[in-house]
């Protein structure tokens, strides 16, 4: 299972290697707050206090950004600098596994990987969920109400795969 975003958070002390996640003690940024709002609306899970998504990663959720670095205070500043080759390879490796997988693509940068998922994987039965980015600038254009968490778990259960425990 993969959640793919755009680039790391660019505020001081925010990014820590997992897309959309921040370390314990760091206030959840607006995109993550919107993810929590959708999680609550979708599955009724109360919004966590921590922005640390490590429990999702420990269950096998790959929290990946399209671009892996960013200049402090400048969102998107390292886009187009070669990271796509690495993240394409990571997405292809997951798509090529024997088991069906869910790919949640948040934002237009992430959505560009959708065609690669089907083309590169051995399987054609992966679930690809695309929606606008959870940023306050775009969340109201279709991120809210997209129900990615219940869609993911419904798909996994139909495949005989343990669903994700989204509670943090």
Walk me through this protein's architecture.
This protein is of the alpha/beta class and 168 residues long. Helices cover 32% and strands 11% of the residues. The chain is built from 6 helices and 4 strands. It has helices spanning 30-43, 54-58, 83-95, 108-111, 114-120, 148-158; strands at residues 2-5, 62-65, 102-106, 127-131. α3 (83-95) packs across α5 (114-120). The two termini are 17 Å apart. The mean pLDDT is 91.
In short:
This protein is of the alpha/beta class. Helices cover 32% and strands 11% of the residues. The mean pLDDT is 91.
Name some characteristics of this structure.
168 residues, alpha/beta, 4-stranded parallel β-sheet, 6 helices, 32% helix, 11% strand
Distance between the termini: 17 Å
Give the biggest beta sheet: 4 strands, parallel
Residue runs with pLDDT of under 50 for 5 or more positions: none
What general form does the structure show?
globular
What is the residue-averaged pLDDT?
A: 91
- Put simply, the count of helices is 6
Secondary structure tally: strands: 4
Spatial strand order of the main sheet: 2-1-3-4
Query: What is the SS-derived class?
Result: alpha/beta
What is the element string, with H for helices and E for strands?
EHHEHEHHEH
